[in-house]
Amino acid sequence: MTALLQLFTWLLTGFLLLATALAILFARRPLLGVAQHWGLQLWWLALLGALPALWRGDWICFALCLAVAAWWSVMLFRRPRRAAADGAPLLRIVSANLLHANDALDRAGAAIAALQPDVAVLCEVTPGARAALRALEARLPHALDTCAPDSLYGIVILSRFPLTERSRGIGEDPTPRHLAADLAIAGGTVSLLAIHPTNPLRLPRAHRIPGEFAAVADLCRTLREDLIVIGDCNAAGWSSYLRGLERAAGLANDGGLRPSWPVWLPAPLRLPLDHVWVRGRLTLARVWPGPAYGSDHLPLVAEIGRPRDAGS
After folding, report:
1. Per-residue pLDDT tens over the stretch 23-66
2. Is the peptide bond before 117 cis (omega within 30 degrees of 0)?
3. How many structural domains is the chain composed of?
4. Does residue 83 lie within any of the structural domains?
C-alpha cells in the first residue's frame, strides 16, 4: 500500500507539473496550451496532492504541489478590475448557450423569461430553436440574429430596447462568430458585442482561435466606448486569450469564478466559459449563474450599471 501511495503521489505530481508547464509555455497554442482552461481543477488537484505527500514526508512532491497551487492561485484569484455600480442598474442581460442538440426548448424559453432580462443573448441557435423561441419577443420585441438554414451556431439578440446592427460573423469568414449592435437605452446608446469563439477541442478549427480573439479586439475598437462584451467564450477567464483581449480592448470584469460547463459535473469540476465585460462608463452591478435549462451550460445573468459620478 505504501508503494502504491508513493507511485500515485509521484504520478499526480508529474501530471500537475506537465499540465502547468504546457499551460505556461504554450499559452497561445490552442491544443498544446489547452490545459490552461483547467486551471481551477489543477489548483484543486495540487492541494489534494500535497496531502499524501505531507503524510508520507515526501517533501519534494509536497513542495512541487504547493508551487503548482501557488501558480494557479495567482492566475485564478487576481483582484477584480472593475468595482460594482452604486446606482440602479441600467439593464439586465441574460447570456445563454442553448446547445444545438437541445430538445427542451420550451423549458429553455421559460427559464430565460423567468430571469426577466432586458436583453437576451443566445448562441448555438438552430433555425428550429429560433422558431421555438419567438414567444420571447412578446417581452423582448427588438431582435437581430445570424441564424441560417444550415447552421447550428446562430447568435440571437433579443431586447426591450431598439437595436441597430453594427457587425456580424458566422465563423466561416475571417471574423469569428459574433453579433454586434447598438442599444438605445435611457441616458444614451451602448454597444453590445455577443461572441462565441471556436471550441479548442474542435481539432480541425482550433488553429483559428488566436486570430478570432484578435478579431474580437479589433471589433471592440470599432464600437462605442460604452461597450458590453458577453457570450460563451470557450475559454477560461484567466486564459491568455481572454487576458489579452482585456488588455487590447480595454475591457474589465469583476474577476469572479462562475463555473458554467458542463452542468452535469459538480461546480468545482466545471469550467467557467461564459463571461461578461464592460468598458467606458459602464460597470457590473451584479453577475451570477442562472438555473439549468436543458443545455450543457448554465446561463449567465449580468446587471449593468454606472457609478453615480459617471453621469449620463
Report:
1. 999 999 988 999 999 999 999 999 999 988 888 888 899 999 99
2. no
3. 2
4. no
